[in-house]
Write a structure and sequence with these properties.
The protein is α/β, with parallel strands linked by helices. It folds into three domains: 192 residues, Rossmann fold; 100 residues, Rossmann fold; 126 residues, CBS-domain (Roll). It has 16 helices and 16 strands. The strands form four sheets. A six-stranded mixed beta sheet has the order 1-2-10-7-8-9, sandwiched between helices. The longest helix is centred in the middle third of the chain and has 18 residues. It is globular. The protein binds pyridoxal-5'-phosphate. The site of pyridoxal-5'-phosphate has 19 residues, from α2 and α6. Keywords: Pyridoxal phosphate.
Length: 457
């Protein structure tokens, strides 16, 4: 634990000693005391400042990084921020590789802190040369005097939590903590805190929030690394497609899977009910307490750790359009207008009936759309659907030279913008993959089968 000082010599000395705050309104239905360790009070606004500094101090001690050197790390953003603080204060360069699902805010913030950013695709296996792990590894080989902490396996990660976060939690609860709950990514937080707390009192339960699409829960319960568990998901910071060395499964009592939707909705609820503007994984961690509340009693003292600040998620979890596009918002009483709100200022892409089919196909590819209304003057006279066009081109390769008029389907039904979503759904059938909504300004917008599935699921 770092000492509390009146005046700190630099920002790095302010890392740690974060407050613990009782959760009130949101926890009214939980039969236990619920306390939050709010890690956004760290100078980089996340818990990761702790381990980032530890990894760099260990590297300096071991001679792995020299003055003027370059730090290279793959990060979901927060470790990058912690490393940026350390790099600035200590005089290193920083390069971060991030996967493209991370919020734009996280990338902008890292750039603002002087880091060089490499954005890598999410949908590739860890060993693929374009994955954010492989790119970091390659840069480390190419750049002289560079140091690649690799937070997944670096022992400094869990060490930071064993030496600071764990002791703080023990002292702040006067040793009364009975459960520790946290989202698991590299595993540093849960393993370091868990090890410290178990040494103090082996009866303390250590619970990890996992995502659907991650390998942790199944591996913990069966010992099997099941690749079938891996698929891409939306939650940021937790869940993995690898087994980081920092996950010490022996100190973890239980993993609970949390859906992307629940994590997002609970993150919003924490802001509204507790005034805590937190990151996505905080919602997942709190949702775990909800899913496990049947096992808690009034004497239990549950500490949930909230990793980071919500400012990094304003374009995502805290943005209604983003939430609606993913079907995360309750659709009770929602209307056709609600479904198009997020893109209603964009122009509707249409095809002309006189245009060649090959041109219309190119347009659909360019805008990545599957359904297109067909127009003659101001009138909607037909529709094009990519799966039907596909079949047509397969059976008759010359179909691309026909005009759209010769191959188009029926025009889409036109509905009013205040129509209920469930009623909108009733217009969708095998023949009708979409409907057109008439907006107040006289413009039209399209709602597809996929928009409705997203909204109702
Ligand atoms: C927002 C957020 N939540 C949770 C985690 C998981 O923490 P850990 O890597 O210590 O398991 C991270 C890690 O990057 C994170 O950035």
């Amino acid at each position: 634990m770092r000492p509390v000082k009146k005046i700190y010599d630099n920002l790095l000395e302010t890392i740690g000693n974060t407050p613990m705050v009782k959760l009130n309104k949101i926890a009214e239905d939980i039969p236990a005391t619920v306390l939050a360790k709010v890690e956004y009070f760290n100078p980089g606004h996340s818990v990761k400042d702790r381990m980032a500094l530890q990894m760099i101090e260990n590297a300096e001690r071991d001679g792995l990084i020299k003055p003027g050197g370059t730090i290279i790390e793959c990060t979901s953003g927060n470790t990058g921020m912690g490393l940026a603080l350390a790099a600035i204060v200590k005089g290193y360069k920083l390069i971060c590789t991030l996967s493209d699902k991370q919020s734009k805010e996280k990338m902008d913030i890292l750039r603002a802190m002087g880091a060089e950013i490499h954005v890598c695709p999410t949908n590739v296996a860890a060993e693929h040369p374009d994955s954010y792990y492989s790119v970091a590894e390659r840069l480390n080989k190419e750049i002289p005097n560079s140091f690649y902490p690799f937070q997944y396996d670096n022992p400094g990660n869990a060490q930071a939590h064993y030496e600071s976060t764990g002791p703080e939690i023990w002292e702040q609860t006067d040793g009364k903590i009975t459960h520790f709950v946290v989202g698991v990514g590299t595993g540093g937080t849960i393993s370091g805190v868990g090890k410290y707390l178990k040494e103090k009192n082996p009866n303390i339960k250590i619970w990890g929030a996992d995502t659907y699409g991650s390998v942790f829960k199944k591996y913990h319960e069966t010992g099997e690394f099941d690749e079938n568990e891996i698929y891409s998901y939306i939650t940021e910071g937790i869940g993995e497609d690898i087994l980081p060395k920092n996950v010490d499964f022996s100190v973890i009592d239980h993993f609970e899977k949390i859906t992307d939707k629940d994590g997002a909705l609970v993150t919003r609820e924490l802001a509204k009910k507790e005034g805590m503007l937190l990151g996505y994984s905080a919602g997942s961690a709190y949702q775990m307490i909800r899913q496990m509340k049947h096992t808690l009693t009034k004497d239990d003292v549950v500490v949930v750790l909230f990793h980071d600040h919500g400012s990094r998620y304003v374009g995502k979890v805290f943005n209604d359009d983003w939430m609606r596009d993913r079907g995360f918002l309750n659709t009770e009483n929602s209307t056709a207008l609600d479904l198009v709100k997020g893109h209603k200022d964009l122009n509707l892409i249409t095809a002309k009936s006189s245009e060649l089919v090959s041109h219309a196909i190119l347009k659909m590819q360019r805008y990545q759309i599957s359904q297109v209304p067909v127009m003659e003057g101001d009138e909607f006279v037909g529709s094009l659907d990519d799966s039907k066009l596909f079949q047509m081109i397969i059976s008759d390769p010359s179909a691309g030279d026909k005009t759209v008029r010769e191959v188009m389907g029926k025009p889409y039904p036109i509905i009013e913008s205040n129509e209920d979503v469930k009623k909108v759904a009733s217009h969708i059938s095998k023949e009708n993959d979409a409907v057109l909504v008439k907006l107040e300004d006289g413009k039209h917008h399209i709602i597809t089968k996929h928009d409705i599935i997203g909204a109702l699921s």
